[in-house]
Structures are given as structure tokens and as C-alpha cells.
Predict the 3D structure of the following.
Amino acid sequence: MTLTQQIKKKALDLGFDLVSIIPVSPSTTIDVYANWLASGYAGEMSYLEKHYERKKDLQNVMPQTRSLISLAINYYTKHVFEAEKKDPSKGLFSSYAWGDDYHQIVREKLEQLRAFIQERMPVQGDSRVYVDTGPILEREYAVRGGLGWFGKNSMLINRQKGSWFFLAEILLSNVLEYDPVIVKEGCGSCTLCLDACPTNAIVLDGLVDARRCLSYLTIELKGSIPQEFRQAMGNIIFGCDICQDVCPWNIKATVSQVSAFRSRGENNMPNLIDLMSLSQTEFSRRFKNSPVKRSKRRGFLRNVAIALGNWGSPQAIPALKHGLSDEEPLIKIHSAWALGQISHPEAKQVLKAALEVEKEEEVIREIKEALFVV
């Protein structure tokens, strides 16, 4: 076999589902990216703009880059029934967060693949590996290599395997044999993902306004979630799978063979009431080596409070009362809102009692608004 063929076989043996090797050239979608940034669609993710210049060309990332190995690995672990997902007393995580943090898992596989390559062809200069962290327009290069096309929801979609993938890359200084493939776009006239998005975050075909996306709101946004989106969250507390759940191409998806991606159990539809009492120590222990730690305790309990408010059950009042006395203003703000969604006299009593002792202006404002709602 040629080295390119050997690399592909080794990648598949390591557990990657898709792999392509392409020559390096400047980005062809950088103008789309620039317009996306200029429109403000990145929200508070300022680091994306900082990476802009480097994303124009992979040689801005690694000057001697000649080849890029684009890889995709399946993380699909679905085994939650629709009836379970609709239980408002339980929290819903994006399925990528059910298991261990993919960054470490995939990086270990990349390092094994890089070592395999170096044994057969010493790297001429530098080489680098990235897992969703580098200044690379990774979906563009995956499309160039024939791994799929840009879906209307902006995800990479593969005709045989769907869209439940983590993407990764290896940059090499060596020149290899290449096999770029032109992939025909397959979304056609389908608009299921656009129609299903509860916040209308997909503003154009393939263009997502992150400021409206539930994944961004529950993970990347560090402050208060705008009130206009809170009810749309339902019981979602970390990430969002809606646009992938409804995609017809994902009917073909098979369960990942990577055991570390599978559910820890405790991340599979946990009771919202129980989550609201997590201390910092308990949060850190529960979500050690989990993607959920990215939201931090304050962001996570902010999301849980909203979900409890959307549940609207008097059973949630004690948990939200606990949240209203938390040391984090962000948790108190959203606990106040949530209590305002519960039509029960006790919820109003808790809010009034909190109003008498609260010092934070933003929390006071939220409590007053919640009392008006009640």
C-alpha cells in the first residue's frame, strides 16, 4: 500500500470513521467566515475573531504545512426515548456530553496516528494535531477531502453516516499522495432543521446566529440568558441536538464504538431538583473529565434553574429557593425568573422574602419582574 493508504487504514483501525488527506492551500470560505463575524453572529466568542488572520491559510498556523489529514469520529450514543426527553422534571444534555471529554480521547488517537506516520516517513519539520481547538476552518477542509457537505444547519453531513462527528486534523510538512473528492450537497429542499430550531438560530442556509443557538446560550454565554430564549430552552441544560435529531441523514447513524463516549448514566436525563443543590466540590467531582465543566457551576445551575422554571411545578420551589440564596448572582437571577414561572402562592412568598434581603441590583430587578409575572 502507499503511505496514504497506510495512514487511512491506521486511522480506521484507531477508531476514526472518516479520513482524507489533502494538499494545503488558502481557505476558500474565509469571506463567508468574515461576514459571519462582521454580522455579530459569534456573540461573545471573541477568540474566533482573534483567530481570523491565521484561519486564512494553514501556513499561518504552521508555516511549513504541506498536507492536512482531516478526520471524523462518530460519537452517536443515542438511547433516550422521546417520552423521556419530554419529561420536564429531567435535564437534557447534548449527547456529546454524556460521556468523557472528547478532546483528550481523540487527541490520544491523533498522537498514535502521528507516531505511526513518523515511523514510516520522518516528518520534515513540524507537525501538529488539533481537536476542535486550533485556528482551522475544519469543516471546510473536511468538505474538500470528501468527508461530507455543509448542511443547512452548518454541520458536516456524510451521506452514509450522518452528522454525529467530532472533527480533528493533523498538519504535516511532508507532501503525500492526495485524493480530494467533490461531494454533492444532499440537503436539497429539506428544511427540517430550520423548522425545528426553537429559537430560529439558523438564519440562512448553512448560517447560524450563535447568539440564538441553544448550544451557545447554555455553554459559551457567560452571563444572563436573554429572557426571549428562556422558555424555548425547555428542559435543555447543556448543548442542543435538535437540528441533528430531525436530520433525515442521521437515520443511518450507528452507535459509536468508542466506549468513553457512552453515557456515564448520571448525565442521562438527571433529575433537575437534584442538580440544583450541587456545591462547587460536587459539581467538580461529578463532571470531572466531562465537557460539562466548560459551563462552570454558575452557568450550569443557571441553565438548570431555567429548566425548573419551564417545568413550572411547585415541587421545584425548594430547589429554586436554594438557588435564590446562592452566592453566585447569576444563579440567583435565573432562580428568581424560574420562581416567577410557577403559579403557586409559595413561589411568590419566596420571592418576596428574598427581595427584603437581596443587595445585588440585577437580582433585585429580576425578582421584581418575577413577582409581576406571578
